[in-house]
Amino acid sequence: MTFDAKARIAQLRTEIERHNYRYYVLDDPSIPDAEFDKLFRELQALEAQHPELLIPDSPTQRVGGKPLKSFAEVQHRTPMLSLNNAFSEEEVRAFDARIREALGAAEVKYAVEPKFDGLAITLTYRDGVFVQGATRGDGNTGEDVTENLRTVRAIPLHLSEPVADVEVRGEVLMFKRDFARLNDEQRARGEKEFANPRNAAAGSLRQLDSRITASRRLSFFAYGIGLCEGAVLPARHDQQLVLLRRWGMPVAQQRRVVQGVEGLLGYYREIGAQRAGLPFDIDGVVYKVNDTALQQQLGFVSRAPRWAIAHKFPAEEAMTVLLDIEVQVGRTGALTPVARLAPVFVGGVTVTNATLHNEDEIRRKDVRIGDTVIVRRAGDVIPEVARVAVGKRPHDAREFVMPERCPVCGSHVARLADEAVWRCTGGLFCPAQRKQALLHFASRRALNVEGLGDKLVEQLVDAHLVDTPADLYKLELPALADLERMGEKSALNLLHAIEHGKRTTLARFIYALGIRNAGEATAKDLAQHFGSLDNLLAADAASLQQVRDVGPVVAQSIVDFLAEAHNREVIAQLRASGVHWPEHGQRQMTELPFSGKTFVLTGTLAAMSRDEAREKLEALGAKVSGSVSKKTDYVVAGAEAGSKLDKAQELGVVVLDEQQFMALLNE
Predict the structure, then answer these.
(1) Res. 68: pLDDT tops 70
(2) CA-CA distances (angstroms) from residue 569 to 198, 431, 504, 518, 531?
(3) 425 exposure class (CB count in 10 Å sphere: 0-12, 13-18, 19+)
(4) How far, in Å, CA of 470 to CA of 193, rounded?
(5) Residue 508 · residue 445 · CB < 8 Å
(6) Predicted pLDDT at 63
(7) Are 314 and 85 in contact (CB under 8 A)?
């Protein structure tokens, strides 16, 4: 370790935090993202070379750590109060009148700011260093989400001033652009989409695995200060927000101070007009008496301050007639009932369709065809049927019945016990799922057909060249070369990749089928247990539940998928096309040589990739874990092994170098 390395690490940390401040607080980045990434990677490399210099509040530690088993409780030292709501101009005027009467004032100055639609949190800093973060909870007790909040780049790990002890109150939220990106990623993975940015932010913040939180691009705005020791707070709320910004906290740019009730209502109308164009969701505005001495004089009522109120925006709603209910089939096979409406103008647009979410929601709201319904639309959110005007129900209104077969392909539909959604079981055949099924089939951990991405799949399906994964093996050079941006060389490369993917493993093939709830780990367990595809095809729910980690829900998903004749036909076509793998007959897990053994891989192996090593170990019955614990049997340490090797040596776990590992495999 040299002084230069230590100095450079300190310089990089300071520079990275400065750029974070300019990006998240000032909204004025001074360098391109690529330059920021270059600085970040340099810091990561230096910390890896000098682990003794790594500190918990380094910018590199925002990537998340090992998963927690649960969140600990946090007792708030000063309560996190909620606000009373106003929904009309009359209620706002009454609020102002109560304030003026209590203070004996003719007019009052208020601090006004947007009401973020996110999750309220409190951040504790000691000597200027972030030490704890918690959710609001019930106002007195919240959940300790410190590790997740460390991953939020808008939250400074150090204040610009070393305040002895301070609680910063604020809101974690997700910007609209990041919400759209997250749902795009969820769709690409065939996973459930989030309903709105607030749900996405709340779900992301409460992940037990902080690495997931780190991947979600959460944001933060501070709106107040709780307990504070070691600093003199300004006497006005607007000045306290300026102080928070000076400390390095993002605060709303749309804040200001207004005079009297007309100032409040003018601000409400102004922000309402800007609402759709804001980069984040708001559901109203907040009014606070600006003078903190007057706040103390006014005090509290129940669990809310007398000196503040939230003026909520009305939901954008309109009344119309539900003409029919149709069922759409999504890319993952989910059946979604959609209301066909008599055209109605709501939220600035004419709406003719609205989501009904699922069958349970239709039953809960008692929605029937022919009903007069209230439709809600807020911003860019898909319109939904909020409720029924039951008093206007006609005598011939009809109840909706979910179809027993997919309206697109005719396959059976199924609903698992723990889900609200019905799904088409014709995953390999259904046109609605065609593109998603092909992308999954060709993905790296499935049959790994290099070059078969979103745009090419779109072209192949739209040109009716490929209907099922089996059709990939019928593609011919002339038709491929005629596609946009292909040409003969690219077409040849794709055909070679398809041919190369024919030789695979049973586990990869099972995973490539895209059976719901049967992910990569389950596919490996199925392959190890049954040993051959024919054994799996003959299995019933009871025998499937004999497989490690396969319960009733997963077993039923597999049974439903394999019971569909269309899927079996595609599987037969794939085998006839030459897709193959070694088969060893059915073997119980206890018969495999590494059954019950847990391995951890770290560093780089010369003879094979980490994925190849994992596959070899799992084929022999081993469990391959991502972290070292007392239950670990072996740690395989390749070149440049990191902290996992240190942990293994600390716990006395057997460490194998590459030569020893290869010898063990050969045995």
Answers:
(1) no
(2) 43, 15, 20, 20, 21
(3) buried
(4) 29
(5) yes
(6) 59
(7) no
**pLDDT band of 245, cuts 50, 70, 90:** very high
Q: What number of other Cβ atoms are within 10 A of residue 99's Cβ?
A: 22
- Residue positions counted in the chain: 667
Q: Please tell me what DSSP assigns to residue 192.
A: P
Q: Annotated catalytic, 115?
A: yes
Greatest distance between any 2 Cα atoms in the chain:
90
**How high is the pLDDT of residue 69?**
67
Is the separation of the CB atoms in 155 and 214 below 8 Å?
no
End-to-end CA distance of the chain: 42
Question: What are the tokens at 389?
Answer: 């005007």
Three-class secondary structure of residue 529 per DSSP:
helix
**Environment class of residue 624 by beta-carbon count within 10 Å: exposed (0-12), middle (13-18) or buried (19+)?**
buried
Which of 323, 567, 294, 288 is CA-nearest to residue 437? Answer: 567
pLDDT at residue 667 greater than cutoff 80: no
Average pLDDT, rounded, for the chain: 87
Q: Answer left, alpha or beta for residue 312, where phi above 0 means left and psi between -120 and 50 means alpha.
A: beta
The pLDDT tens digits of the residues spanning 24-56 come to 666 567 777 667 777 877 888 888 888 888 877
Q: Alpha-carbon distance 484 to 73, whole Å?
A: 57
What b/e string do you get for 309-337 counting C-beta neighbours within 10 Å, with b at 16 or more? Answer: bbbbbeebbbebbbeebebebbbbbbbbb
Question: Could you say which of 38, 66, 109, 115 is catalytic?
Answer: 115
How far is residue 661's CA from residue 655's CA, in Å, rounded to a whole number? 9
Q: What are phi and psi of 375, to 5 degrees?
A: -105, 135
pLDDT per residue over 265-294, tens digit each?
999 999 988 988 899 988 899 999 999 999
pLDDT score at 1: 46
DSSP states along 452-488: --HHHHHHHHHTTS-SSGGGGGG--HHHHHTSTTTHH
Tokens read off for 153: 């780049």
The per-residue pLDDT for 517 is 83
Place of tokens 């606070």: 288
- The domains found in the chain, sorted by start residue, are 3-63 (1.10.287.610), 85-312 (3.30.470.30), 317-399 (2.40.50.140), 409-589 (1.10.150.20), 592-666 (3.40.50.10190)
For the chain, percent helix, then strand, then coil, each to nearest 5? 40, 20, 35
- The predicted-structure confidence for 483-492, as pLDDT tens digits, reads as follows 888 888 888 9
Give tens-digit pLDDT for 248-258. Answer: 999 999 999 99
Residue 387: what residue type?
R
In angstroms, rounded to a whole number, what is the distance separating the alpha carbons of residues 480 and 295? Answer: 72
The rounded distance, in Å, linking the Cα atoms of 311 and 275 is 14
pLDDT digits (tens, 9 = 90+) for 141-160: 888 999 889 989 899 999 98
